[in-house]
């Protein structure tokens, strides 16, 4: 029967992939430095593979084999010369209750370069033992079924996280919350396929009620709704992972370079009284309220310049603005002293700079040089419109309020990973989810547009199988070597 053949083929493929790859890849014992490189107080050297027991016997003088997952202080010797290398901690993790699913050792030794080098030299003397490739420990954990690809990618993001919000998002993904969502979708689709194929195989014998088919199609509609909601996230997770690209824009000499210097607390951009000093995009990375921000100082926007270099800088600034997630529009406060209607002034100001009014949704307005405003003017502007951030880059007046408003906007752009459902953090995930959604919509459209007497469910169900495969490409149930090599190569040697 079709159902039996399909699931039999899937099981055989899974068995082949798991058994053959583990046999080929895990035949050797690997070792690597799991702590940071360079001189440090303690270096952690991890060993994984079948030779782990022999390594413990040869490199220590323990009277009894160490208990699992319990640190033992011992002298550590060279495996070949028997010379003492160091005195440190040994931890034994027998498989399959280990990170890689194999017998694993951790040596905690002093972090001197000579000690680590001697440990490497000693471990390399054991038969079929070699230094690990980047990410190979995690790859073995993946092949052993300890984690799926989304958890692997979450672990990589956790290692590279630079801000608190990035850490929270990566931790949730590494702990399997995103994996649970995708596996739940996959389970619903597999159940729908089973129901539909059972209807195909047994409907004529009246063993399966017609209601089974309608329930399966209804469940697929539910999966389509979940996928659309998941994809309609405004790319919050990807922004948080990669950083919010923010362009500082405005007319020449309004304080754009002073703003980026103030935020970085160093001289990132040149600041002079000469208009048009900034010619190229000057980028710098920041942690603002736990969110990663990529600030770009751009050339001052103005019309009619005859300087060829400045014209090129303005063209690059406009290109950068188009791709930015957030715009910081800097306005010179000294030029609004006599302005009656600030909204009219801003609209004309943006037109002068050549900025589209639609950009307002991506814009935060910074009224710089507010120390030049009189108290009356500031009160009048505040009463008229509370959307400005009053700031003086010279005196740093208004900086806390500006940062708080900026953080609020960053939360809107990236979400709060500690309370929201896991979001898409990789373009790879988004691509396969869109492919999955397209497959499901093709099935749904066929089902609704074709009458019961004309439906060939045995053929059209392949759209559902393709949808299952698309999700499998995200979690690693179905994978290609090229995808795996790219993912695992982002790890360091000892991970």
TrEMBL record:
It catalyses: GTP + H2O = GDP + phosphate + H(+). Keywords: GTP-binding, Hydrolase, Mitochondrion, Nucleotide-binding, Transit peptide, tRNA processing. The keyword Transit peptide applies. GO terms for molecular function: GTP binding; GTPase activity. One of its GO terms (cellular component) is mitochondrion. The keyword S-adenosyl-L-methionine does not apply. PANTHER family: TRNA MODIFICATION GTPASE GTPBP3 (PTHR42714), TRNA MODIFICATION GTPASE GTPBP3, MITOCHONDRIAL (PTHR42714:SF2). Belongs to the TRAFAC class TrmE-Era-EngA-EngB-Septin-like GTPase superfamily. TrmE GTPase family. GTPase component of the GTPBP3-MTO1 complex that catalyzes the 5-taurinomethyluridine (taum(5)U) modification at the 34th wobble position (U34) of mitochondrial tRNAs (mt-tRNAs), which plays a role in mt-tRNA decoding and mitochondrial translation. Taum(5)U formation on mammalian mt-tRNA requires the presence of both GTPBP3-mediated GTPase activity and MTO1 catalytic activity. This is 5-taurinomethyluridine-[tRNA] synthase subunit GTPB3, mitochondrial.
